[in-house]
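User: Second chain of the day. Same drill as before.
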Amino acid sequence: MAALAENRDRHSPLLELDVPLLRLIDPRQCSHMTTKMATIAGEWEVRVATERLWEELPLETGVYMFVWRPTLRFKVSPVLAKKARTIPSVIPDSLSYVLYVGQTGASGGSGSFHQRYKSYTSYLAGNPAELWEERPVQTRHSRLARFLTLRPLEFWYAVVKDPNEIDWLEDQLMKLLNPPLNGPKSPRFALERPNPRCDAPSEGSPLCPTKPSFQPSEPLSVTGSTTCA
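Assistant: Same format as last time:
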């Protein structure tokens, strides 16, 4: 990539990831989500996100994701790989990052994967040198213009027929994954402020609750480099 060669001596560009831990560490919620997705969406298709992929995509509705998978690979132990055939999991040899979640054909809307993907072609055709731009990315347009130039990039999509289920699945994936190019979506975690009138709270007092109140999830801020030296 020419942009990488030209900018190798500059500071690495960064992509900030805020991971909503509460949902992802809850095995019951993850299991429910897995089962629900399999019921309403079936299997996900994974394609290389090229500029002209829209020509090959179906005239169907559903949910999609742009996923960045760096070329870094790990040699997996043959023993571990053998175990992977007998347990309900897959041992990956690479890392991937969900950058963006979207939908087409939800309630009140129209379109298809074919049409929606075509609307991203200008971003996919962008200059990778955008990664080293110093101006802040504050809008959806600026985020897509900068980070959809990452390669290798994949396009994942799942066909969903029911418009209401499309709305639900997109919303749940955004809350679960908090993809950075969508902007902040997941709920935040907050402790209730102490009540100054409670010098010695009594159990059950409506003004002096005995337990702090929580809102579902404080994302863990993880700053990741977008280049591999």
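Residues 23-183 form one domain.

User: Great, on to the next one.
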